[in-house]
Design a protein that fits this description.
By secondary structure, this protein is of the alpha+beta class. Helices cover 49% and strands 20% of the residues.
Amino acid sequence: MNRTKNNLMIIIVLGIIAASVSIGSISLMSFANVVTNDNRQVLEYACRQNAETINAQLSETETLVHTLSDYYTEEIENIGDLRDEQWLMEYTQQAQQVATSVIDNSNSLIAVYLRFNPAFTSPTAGFFLSRAKADQQVESLPPTDLSLYDKSNVAAAGWYYIPVEKGEAVWLQPYVNVNNGYYMISYVQPLYKDDQLIGVFGMDLDYDAILKKTASIHLYDSGYALLMDQNGSFHSALGHVPQISSDTIRKIINGEDNCVTSSFIEVQQLYITTSVRMQNGDYLILVVSEQELYKAGNQMIFTIILNTLAVCTVIIAILTGMINRMMNETRTDPLTRCRNRDAYLEKRNSMEKALQSGKSMHFAIVVMDINGLKGINDSQGHLSGDRLLINSCKLMKEAFPKETLYRIGGDEFVIILDRRTCKVVEKLVQDFRVNNDRVAQCYNMDCDHPLISIGYAVYDPSIHYSYSDTFKQADENMYSDKQCFYAKYGQYARRKDSKS
């Protein structure tokens, strides 16, 4: 069994190593080719990864807007209800409570608003919830009076007219909200009922916070990140705007691919830029010097090698543990949880081979047999017989706590004691018999009181030519002990099994 296990482990380890070397070699050659010929792909990957972080926040906002918009629309059964001031007030209060709960449980939202179509309501109908500061409580601010602005006044009312004109949810360009003073971006969705405009619902994000998050992106030693809106204007919390040409800006905006790589020269240094169009239509741009990009590529190759080795080590460790558990389970008796016959035969065969090779060995064999198992099975059922087996194994393990217990038959068990003297073995067996006698003195047919016969033999090369000879003597001594037991305790005769 050990040889099978070892062979299986060798095959798996060699397979993993071969696969890792093959895949790693191909990956490293491919990556080295990228580093040599087009290191810009590294920058593109970094740009996509960082854009995903910002997009996650934008996607969360979109999901919230769509979800609440559907909810608010479904709550209006008849668009004519908007003309009912009492109904509109109650509806607005209910809608505001839901929005308050949303903004209270979000760290990124700074404002939420629901505004109704002035054709059905007053020009200030709706609500506007905002934080004065990011760490302060949400408060209700007076909604903008839509009658004071038309659609040409984008700064004051673009949040209403732009999504209404487009007829779909839109991200607005960054702007300063006149109500709370925040530099923000908004995602706004027009609400319709029976193809008639109800109003708009939107949420605002702190654009300064997004710029700071962008500024925290560190690329190599001197690389940095910034944002560019759809009009080609740069926004950066660092204050530095690179000297990117108008041709490069047009290439980014008009690029068919979502990710565009370009370059520019600044202070006689060539810089590589990679941009990714984000969820709201803006662009995340990463900038790094070409010289530093080559250096970073080599470092990433080294990192890939280390990660590959680490992954292989983890996989091998996991598989080794799984195989050990699987092999151990196949060598374990499911009822008593001691070693089964296969495990015993493996141990026996290995000892036989060692003896045949002339190796000097010192060991003793203890054979134990449960008295009356067949009688318990016949009179009380196999469940009681199973309990007798379990309780018997418990006693055996308590008597020989440091040894391996093997179940080699229905009611027969073996323990092999390595490097134990005759006196030690004799003392262990005698203690076991004393305990067995103490149990036997109380007449009881209950399977919770195991009665076990025991015999042992210490290997003596002068009289034993093999392991089997030693086992045979131990087995014979066990049956002699069984006969003595029944002779001494005749009241247990009706519990005897067929072997007794």
